Amino acid sequence: MRNHLFAALHNSSVTLRRHKAAAASSPSFARASTTNRQTASTIGD
């Protein structure tokens, strides 16, 4: 289960990287991705 969760988080971070240009032009998207990153860190602990 833990490995599956890690894989899902990894895949979503790759997707975020691909859409970096879109995030740069969309402040609300950038805020959302920051929140997701903090949530992922909490799960990692």
Automatic annotation (TrEMBL):
Residues 23-33 have a biased composition (Low complexity). Residues 23-45 are annotated as: Disordered. Residues 34-45 have a biased composition (Polar residues). This is Uncharacterized protein.
